[in-house]
Amino acid sequence: MKLPSFWGGIHPPQNKELTVSESIVSYRPKGELVFPMSQHIGAPCAPVVAKGDRVFVGTRLGNNDAFVSAPILSSVSGTVKDVTMRLTPPGAFETCVVVEDDGKNELAPEWKPLENYQTADPKEYVKRIRDAGIVGFGGATFPTAVKLSPPPDRKIRWLIVNGVECEPYLNCDNRLMQEGTEKIVQGLALTMRLFPEAEGVIAIENNKPEAIAILKDAVAKSGLNNVTVQPLAVKYPQGAEKMLIEALTGQEFVITALPADVGCIILNVRTVYQIYSAIVEGLPAVTRVVTVTGDAVAHPKNIKAPQGTMIRELIDLCGGFKEQPVKILSGGPMMGLSMRSIDVPVVKGTSGILCLTAKSAMLKPIRACLRCGRCVEACPMGLVPTVLEPLVRARQYKRFEEEGGMNCIECGSCTYMCPANRPLTQGCRDGKASVTAMRRKAAAK
Ligand code: SF4
Ligand code: SF4
């Protein structure tokens, strides 16, 4: 049977075998934890605690009342050691709250299960989801409460749980689907109370047969007859919103629109898991599963760590490096961001830490374009990367926009396919950042 998919895309080596069978292990951090105030798309938070304050698991450390934002919560109990500038995973110094862990793991008294949650007004769920700091844990980090509040004239017909995890090397979602199955299904059931006319779809790439089987079984036992588990063709970037919508609903989705405009809401599997946890168990979303992997790591693992834990500690838990890495990425090899240091914290969007040796990083010299067209064939957005990159280098941003550069989803497919090793994705990333900065400047005038 032909499985649903999309136009374009690539088939990079999966390299998931390093951690595919590694059960999630929980880690208790040592000493201090660092919480950057900007961990989501939208308005960054401002600190609401001061040095010396006592905090608990779930205490609000940072907040912003803007609609598109999510609070930053403490993942441990202890004392605020400092509010200061610290290095963060993107390689920038940002305002952070530093908490000294007391090792007691005491939950803040305000955190309790939502009373009568099965019959409660589902609008209370949205408030709880915001208070719990829940964002898109697939890496996009868009605040979930905002996603679940579409304009009233948008009729939601599909509530899609994204378990695709098409990035090579990563297994954090795959393992969660197998180890947190019930909570994912029940989290979806609760979320569907917000959109009673919607159909629930749990989408998983067909290279995760265990997760597909266990979720199909759990859905069948749950009695939810409006939820299906849909295997998808194994092709990168199958998990991107545009590709998911096209594969599952057959609708074309323009990147400038919102999924809700075509009747869809898409939530990552961990996001749905945390929705269950916040409503039913009364727990804030302060941990996350991180796949620490790559051929430089002694014993790759899937680790559940409190947000704020230093990445160096997770690598130590894996036995450290067996060979010196030449490249360390936050995320997978396709969309991950190069890291300057491992002395930075796990944040809401940290899905993986990928440590590559010279052999697997394949650092090759950049050569002149061969006009082979492989980048054009690979681009799932129908762009012409070989035209876009030189436009950015020449600072021709207007032409970059006219050529559709802002539609680039930074998936990395073009760079992966380029035999001349041209930094095509980086070019588009830089172009988009420059255009966005220019638009902001123009709007501020
Ligand atoms: S141009 Fe952008 S969307 Fe197209 S393949 Fe390259 S990174 Fe992906
Ligand atoms: S894949 Fe590389 S070499 Fe081929 S056309 Fe694109 S930029 Fe040029």
UniProtKB/TrEMBL annotation:
SUPFAM superfamilies registered for this protein in UniProt: alpha-helical ferredoxin, Nqo1 FMN-binding domain-like
One of the GO BP terms on file: electron transport chain
UniProt keyword terms in alphabetical order: 4Fe-4S, Cell membrane, Electron transport, Iron, Iron-sulfur, Membrane, Metal-binding, Repeat, Translocase, Transport
GO MF: 4 iron, 4 sulfur cluster binding; electron transfer activity; metal ion binding
Pfam families: Complex1_51K, Fer4_9, RnfC_N, SLBB
Main location: membrane
This protein's GO CC annotations: plasma membrane
The name this protein goes by in its record: Ion-translocating oxidoreductase complex subunit C
Taxonomic source organism: Synergistes jonesii
